[in-house]
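Predict the 3D structure for this chain.
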Amino acid sequence: MSLLIIDDFHESLLTGLNKLNITYDYLPSIAPEEVMQLNNAYQGLLLRSKLKIDAPFIAHFNKIKLIARGGAGLDGINEAACLEKGIHLINAPEGNRDAVAEQTVGMILAWHHKIVWAHQSVQKGEWLREDHRGLEIKNKTIGILGFGNTGKEVAKRFASFGCNIICHDIDETQYDDSLAKAVSLEELQESSDIITIHIPLLKRNHHLVNSHFISKIKSSSLLVNMSRGSILDTPNVLALLAQNEFAGLCTDVIEGEQKDGFPKLDMQSKTRLPELRDRIIMTPHIGGWTHESYQRIAEVILQKITPYLEMSDNEKKSTH
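Done. Predicted structure below.
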């Protein structure tokens, strides 16, 4: 099998492929438009988020039978088209779950204890203790929306804070009573002091968090989005925050993200962000972007593709 690798991966992936005597072309700097100019000579593709895997791509690279994405979801991959062509799909949610969970905890603590704003104030030469009196999260109810790899790690970390932890997931097999109490979405919305989101960007989840969703949560609630920007209907959510329909927002993602440069936002959202700077903590999609997760994602991908690479042709056919 010959692999095409079009994004940057930790060297441990390449070392592992070399040990398996797998042929590959490692082209981490290739531009998206240049990929389609490559010859149809590959049976496998490894990527992060450089380009969309759609029908034209699959038609051009019609020998590909394995696609592995170095990330938590299958963003940008037309799963139905791949399934129709018998393409085996792999991702690596185990690779960055610890990193995302840690940042989730960090952002929630930073918001409640006003760490960001206190730091900014001190940088200005101020020493305003009362202005930055914080809130403790002990005894608060944390609602985890999405209880997969990352959601479970978030629950583990908050267990020592004395919080009441509840969760909701459409896949009931994900529940673990030892980590969190499973509840309906409505109960999670109505009961949570903090709602932290860890769900994939599927069609049914697009703009899941909208005016209707917000209408069911407490006005004192903190909303945390560590999944994908389009889970939130951004203009509506920011407008409702400005109207004090909920207390604050911590987000590592936002609609209109670009690889380089500030996200492309609608004019209303561009105006709202500066106005709400004392209510929002925002980071540039770095939750899963640690030195450790960079290596771990590569190791997870290698671990998952190795059994497939070592299968006979007949065995591979039976997996599709």
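The longest strand covers residues 141-145.
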